[in-house]
Design a protein that fits this description.
The complex is a heterodimer of chains A (347) and B (383). Helix content of chain A is 76%, strand content 0%. Chain A is mainly α and 347 residues long. Chain A has three domains: 39 residues, no CATH class; 209 residues, MetI-like fold (Orthogonal Bundle); 53 residues, no CATH class. Chain B has 17 helices and four strands. Chain B has a two-stranded antiparallel ribbon. Chain B is globular. In chain B, a hairpin with a 2-residue loop joins strand 1 and strand 2. The chains are: A mainly alpha (347), B mainly alpha (383). The interface between A and B is large, with 125 and 126 residues.
Chain lengths: 347, 383
């Protein structure tokens, strides 16, 4: 379809328009690239070359030096590599889990029909609220949670036949996607307190560990995955799956060996998108990690406090942090537009 | 959002109802397995934090040896933020608005009254809908009043208004620049793939890194543009020390980072529109403005409203840029609500932090729901 469009692209500019377009596009290219160029140049400067006023072109108005790179990679290499490894592990693991959990529920929302009873959802919510109130009134949670669970399980068979109104798939999808509206800062304070309580009560450490961050990133990325992939799965023809169903394949097998291979472009775009989110995430890491699980955004931001404006070191840190994502963005540019567009159109 | 989500699912005939009739027990288990992990994770990370946040916002935490002690303090946190000692930080310092401020406020009020009259005349008015609409308009009017009275010469805008500034000025600039670039790149130009890739890059860079870059670039002594600043007599005065200069720096950084998001999706939307109407218009002698106004713009309006909605939801969460670029300063001039919540948290005032977070949650929800109902629905009908 893209090649067809190219051939008959109706926006054919006149020479004057073309020159004007190139001027504007060239200007924005400069706007985009100059900060990145400045970052690269600064990383090769000596401190004196920075503080004596701007020097623009290496070898012309200053002699580049590798001292900052050497400092970051050799002198303080442990301070650099630990957060880097943390970022890679947290980003990859959380993104892979979010992708598969989100993909399976996005697929389920497209192909299966769910009808949760509205009343049961209400009962559940009421029990959660009661539970929290009970714990707030100093009733031990070991008592409150099982009682609430038992009440809920009793409620399922007794109440559900009497409830007429039920929700549909679209309501579930809307609920999942709308989780993005929650400000992360409203979510993270209770999670911080919870992690702390778990650590105190059971000794199982979640604060300042990679696991703690991974769990939060999975939850934060799930809505994006459901939102992007639901529309992608809808665009896959159902005939193949019906054939497989007739041949006796289980839903899990259909999903694993037919649907997922067919949706590789969508999966790639979604994966890249959520990986960049986890890679660059600042707020959750700021609240949940202090030293052991510190990720790169925190390390970069901390430069400010510990060393003052030492631009040369910061430039190196930022460069090694953005290099992998920029390479991925250049390689996968085509997927990104497509993967994002499907979701945005359907909203 | 609700309406579009619904429409997209009803139009989807692929939803198989067949398995339901002969769904065995194992089938039902499989189907539950598909969706329950996501539901459990999201339930846990939405309902639980919301309730606990609400509870924390009414309490004060004291860290004692081996744990925390939670004391219920009623409305004290909210009172402190909205009326008491922290009011200048969150809401700002109000004073008599300037003449421009009065004019701006009058325009907003007239527009709101006009919309209200339109609503009563043209739509089916239900009591609940009317009350909600009235409440929304009052909320918007109060917000406009807060904006004009704190931005006036004697006042000082607080984090709430600053956050709104970041979101709306930022989104407007991002959308306009992104749309312009997308229209230019959609033309048949040699080398357009190069521009597409380059324009995408800022979105990938960590916001913390963007903040540092713009700190370097806006430095008037050693930054690359310092000769320019010197030439116009601003050398040596850092514009990050001026409240409005610092806010502008944050907005510029945000625009630099997020214009690509608008650009890439608008470009894909422009390229996905049908060719025939455009060709027919060219044959009929339409100029490029007419083609844009009557063919391209209506075709991309639904995508545009979705983009604005997404950026709005994400934009209210801004913290990295003001925290690193300006450290919230000078004073608290560039603090966003999320950053204020973090500052409260850092000073161990967790109740206050939760209260700020809750105020942010309420504001974001009101604004998004209003946007979906007032703007989005209208645009979707146009297309």
């Amino acid at each position: 379809m893209i090649t067809f469009f190219r051939r008959s692209n109706p926006f054919r500019p006149s020479p004057f328009q073309m020159v004007l377009s190139y001027l504007i596009l060239g200007f924005w290219t400069f706007v985009v690239l100059f900060p990145i160029y400045w970052l690269v140049v600064t990383s090769f400067k000596l401190p004196s070359q920075v503080t004596q006023g701007p020097r623009y072109i290496p070898f012309v108005d200053f002699q580049p030096s590798l001292h900052a790179w050497q400092y970051i990679f050799v002198d303080v290499r442990n301070d650099t590599f630990r957060p880097y490894v943390n970022t890679v592990i947290v980003g990859l693991v959380s993104s892979i889990f979010a992708l598969f959990i989100g993909a399976s529920s996005a697929y389920a929302l497209v192909r299966f029909r769910y009808r949760p009873k509205l009343g049961l959802v209400g009962v559940f919510l009421a029990l959660v609220v009661l539970c929290v109130i009970a714990i707030a009134l100093e009733i031990p949670w070991q008592l409150a949670v099982p009682i609430a669970l038992a009440l809920f399980i009793i409620a399922i068979p007794t109440l559900s036949p009497r409830m007429k109104r039920s929700l549909g798939n679209s309501d579930i999808a809307f609920w999942m996607i709308s989780q993005r509206i929650l400000p992360p800062v409203a979510v993270i304070i209770p999670v911080y307190v919870l992690y702390q309580q778990i650590g105190n009560a059971t000794g199982f450490k979640l604060l300042d560990t990679r696991l703690g961050l991974i769990i939060v990133y999975i939850a934060a990325n799930l809505p994006i995955v459901v939102w992007l992939l639901r529309d992608y799965f809808q665009s896959i023809p159902i005939e193949l799956e019906e054939c497989a169903q007739i041949d006796g394949a289980s839903p899990l097998r259909i999903f694993w060996s037919i649907v997922l291979p067919l949706s590789v472009p969508g999966l790639v775009a979604t994966f890249l998108f959520i990986l960049v989110f986890a890679w660059n995430e600042y707020l959750f890491a700021l609240f949940l990690s202090s030293s052991q699980a510190q990720t790169m955004p925190l390390t970069v931001a901390a430069q400010n406090a510990t060393r003052g404006p030492q631009w040369w070191y910061m430039s190196v840190l930022i460069l090694i942090m953005i290099a992998p994502v920029i390479v991925m963005a250049i390689v996968l540019e085509r997927y990104i537009a497509k993967g994002l567009l499907v979701g945005a159109v359907k909203g | 959002m609700a309406t579009t989500v619904k429409s997209s699912i009803t139009s989807n005939q692929n939803l198989s109802s067949a398995p339901r009739s002969r769904a065995g027990a194992s089938d039902r288990v499989t189907r539950a397995l598909f969706i329950w992990p996501a539901v459990i994770i999201l339930l846990f990370f939405s309902i639980f934090p919301l309730i606990v946040s609400l509870w924390l916002s009414f309490s004060r935490l004291r860290f004692t040896r081996g744990g925390v002690e939670i004391i219920n303090v009623g409305w004290a946190n909210y009172r402190k933020i909205l009326l008491g000692s922290e009011q200048p930080r969150i809401l700002g310092v109000m004073s008599q608005p300037s003449v421009e401020g009065w004019i701006f406020f009058a325009i907003i009020v007239v527009a709101l009254i006009y919309l209200m009259v339109q609503y009563i005349r043209n739509e089916r008015v239900t009591p609940i809908g009317f009350i909600l609409r009235l409440a929304l308009n009052l909320f918007l009017a109060a917000l406009a009043w807060l904006a004009v009275s704190t931005i006036s010469p004697g006042g000082r805008p607080g984090a709430l208004i600053v956050t709104f500034l970041y979101v709306f000025v930022g989104i407007a600039l991002q959308y306009l620049i992104g749309l312009g670039l997308a229209l230019l790149t959609a033309q048949q130009l040699p080398g357009r793939r190069f521009f597409r890739v380059v324009f995408l890059l800022p979105m990938m860079i960590t916001p913390v890194g963007v903040a540092f870059m713009f700190r370097m670039l806006t430095d008037t002594v050693v930054g690359p543009f310092s000769p320019v600043w010197k030439a116009i007599g601003l050398g040596g005065t850092s514009w990050v020390n001026n409240p409005w200069g610092a806010r502008a720096a944050v907005i510029i950084g945000d625009v630099w980072q997020w214009t690509p998001f608008m650009f890439i999706i608008l470009l894909a939307a422009i390229e996905a529109q049908q060719v025939e109407p455009v060709e027919a218009a060219i044959v009929d002698g339409a100029n490029s403005w007419q083609i844009f106004r009557y063919i391209t713009l209506p075709a991309i309006l639904p995508v545009s409203s979705a983009l604005v909605l997404i950026r709005m939801i994400e934009g209210f969460k801004i913290i990295d840029l003001p925290n690193v670029l300006t450290n919230g300063g000078p004073g608290t001039a560039t603090e966003s609500l999320t950053l204020s919540a973090f500052v409260f948290w850092r000073t161990l005032d967790i109740g206050g932090s939760a209260a700020v977070a809750y105020i942010l949650l309420i504001v974001v929800t009101i604004v998004s729901v209003a946007f979906v109902n007032l703007v989005r629905r209208r645009f979707s009908e146009v297309a």
